[in-house]
Amino acid sequence: MSQFHSHHQHEIPESLRKQLEDYRVSLWKRKLVEAVAAGMVGLLLSFLILYGLDRIWPTPIWARIFILLGGIVLFAGFVPYWLHRWVWGHRSEDQLARLISKKYPGLGGRLLGVIELQNQNEEGDSHSPRLRAAAMEVVAAEAEKRALVEALPNPTHRRWAGLAISLGLGVVATFVFTPKASLNALKRWILPFSHVERYTFTQLKDAPSELAVPYGESFEVVLRLKKDSEKRPEVGSARYETQAQVEAKLVDGAYRFRFPGQQEMGEVAIRIGDLRHRLKISPLQRPSVVKTRAFVRYPDYLGQEPRGWELSSGELSLVEGSDVRFEMEMSRPVVSGNYGPAKFLTVQEEGAGISKLSGELKIDANKITTSSLQIGSVPFELPFSWRDEFELKGGEDFQLRVSAVKDMPSTAYTQGLPKQKAILPEESIEFDVLCEDDFGLKKVGIEWQSLVSGEGERPEVKGELILAEGKREELRILKTALFAPAAFGIEPQRLMLRAFSEDRFPERPRSYSEPISVYVMSREEHAELLKMQFDRAISELEDLTRRETNLLDENQRLESLNGEELATEANRKRLETQERAETESVERMKELTEKVEDVMKGAARNGEIDKDSLKKIAGALKPMQELSQTDLPSVQDELRESREPSNRDETTQEKLESAVIEQKEALQKMQDALAQASEARKRLEASTFVSRLKKAANEESAIVATMLESFSRKLLGKRESDLDPSDRRKLGASASQQALTAADVRWIQEDLGHYHARTGNEKFHAVMKEMRDSGIEKGLEDVRSKLMLHHSFTATEGAKNWADRLSQWAATLGKELDASGGGGGAGGAAGPSPEDEDFEFMLRVMKMIQKQQDLRSQTRVLEQRKRDENPAP
Description:
Low-confidence stretches: 1-9, 349-353, 453-457, 822-830
Strand content: 15-25%
Radius of gyration: 67 Å
Number of strands: 30
Strand order of the largest sheet: 1-3-6-5-4-7-8-2
Number of helices: 17
Structural class: alpha+beta
């Protein structure tokens, strides 16, 4: 018999299938909600964590990455896992039955059995389809009595959804209430590698991350709030490294933190509300001036080139009208700077010519330069300020002081010349001229002019001699000046001689030295001067002789003492006093000898002084020279040696005796010199009478010549009102000169009387008597009166008469001098002595030397004058 095999699978009941399908849908929905909600919780929570951390501190990049990855992993890892587990892992009926069995084990087991029956094959007679269908119906009926939804796992989807919604609402709230902070946190959350700065409710305006501060000086950190800062805390705090915390209140929108001076680099941790800021501090030296240079342009009239120099101090003196520019080399580059405004040290006068003394500094790396500043008449101080690339200020204590100096007039001085000097026309005077100016000399020289004290003196002369032209910037000139009246044709008269200097200031007059009175004398006046000088020298010699006599008396008293007495302290002091006194005598004798030598030289130069007078002066000069050079110094040496501490008593006595002997000889020589000098004085005085009478005669003859010259112009017969002004002036000058001559004649008569009283010379007395008997004083006065009344002819006749009488008296006295000269013995058969010949030879040589010196001096003066008139190009 054949066997039939059937292969048939029975489906579970539709009601049961529908229940399982509903169960699966419910399961998937819940778990899907849980997965999405849990993932969202992770994302939202990571955002909120970053948001919260950012409110406390600037969350670093690594933390932001970790937070973001945590949220992403929770969302991207948990959701697939959860869906795989609950959705993919619970697709079939048996998977659902097993899940139901966890809640309802019996039902779940029977459902699992039904599902298994569903999958069995109907082969042969071993499986009954009817039984299997009945079993499925029974399980389906039981399942209908139960709500399979209740067999779902514990529902957490609401909690996750609620949590996600709560977190979502929290995120929304952050965006609603703190949109800027939330958006900033979102950016930092999404882009953890970015350098988006953390948003704080307290916002600072341009807060620096680095700050350079003055080295070792207290400094201030100023942090300003932005105007739109959401929070404005009243107090902020800061701490420099481990130092004490510093607090600052909010004032005018800024916090000012004051820190003590620092020398090492460090950081300041700042806390203001939710703001955390770190500021790196670098202590640096302030930018300072290393060198200061001044570049000056002087006023045009000085003609000086612009110049520059380095200032060693902060002061500078400049002439008014200059322009100055300052350049300073800095310790490091600066980026900006200013100078001024200047502080004037005195009241600024209107029209002082001061330009604007303020402005910006020109920057060139580490050099700063001012613009050109004009210097007026007021001194000022110029402050500076600058700022470097680190915003460090400098120059608060740096300022330059500029003194406005007036261009003062130059100065002129003469050196090596007395205030009064008397010379003959052919003589010269040599002296130094020193001229100085603060900004440069232009010209240096000497000038002279007549000192006219009244009418009747010689015509006025005036002249100058340029010694040097000042070079540019030459502040001091020292020149030797030589003045020789004969080189300029100057006749005997009184002159005012002075040095002058000119600077370069426009239209400024010359500056003069103190004037020197130069008496250019005639031979007669010169002889009278020599006589007075010789008289003074004789008086000094007389005084020195009396002094030496007193010293000799004291030395003789000491000489009378024995050796033991001389050794006492008191007598040693007497010896010391004697030595000092003798030393003084030596010095006085040297000075006196030099004076007599000058008289001798002047007398030899004069030419009008007779040879015998010169010989007598030379006779007095020779012993004086021996006394000053040998005799008195020898006495001084003996006295010094007599008081040597090492001397024996006998040696002291011997030296003192020797000093007394030599002093007696020296005193005798002094007395001889005094006698010869007295004789020379008489002779010199007598010779001056001759020259003085000749001078008076020449003055009268000059008046006669003036009148005769006026007669040639038909002066006679004219009324005074009809005279030419020059003729009236000449008549007045002649009258004045006549008055001076009359005065001289009166002095001559008086001096003749004194001379006769001293010498007893009858010839001189006779001449004096003749002068008095002639009525010359009245006659000269009559001539002056006639000149004043314009009685020219009678005045001329009277002047000629008195000129002849004066010449006659001069000749009479001259013959008397020749007769009393002795010496050579004009009529002597033996002729002149060798001594006279030697003296005459010496006199000729002396005059030749003087003449050569005068010629050389005049030549030098003329050469200087030629250079002055024809300057080198």
